[in-house]
Amino acid sequence: MTTARDDLVIANHILAKHGVVDGFGHVSIRDPDHAGRFIIARSMAPALVSIDDLMEIDLDGNPVAPDAPRAYLERFIHSEIYRVRPDILAVIHHHSPSVIPFGVTGVPLRPIYHMSGFLGAGVPVFDIRCDAGETDMLIRSPALGCAHAACLGQAAATLMRGHGATVVGTSLQQVVYRAIYMEMNARLQGDALRLGPVQYLTETEARLAAETNDGQVQRPWELWAREVT
Ligand code: MN
Question: What is the mean pLDDT of the chain?
Answer without folding.
Answer: 97
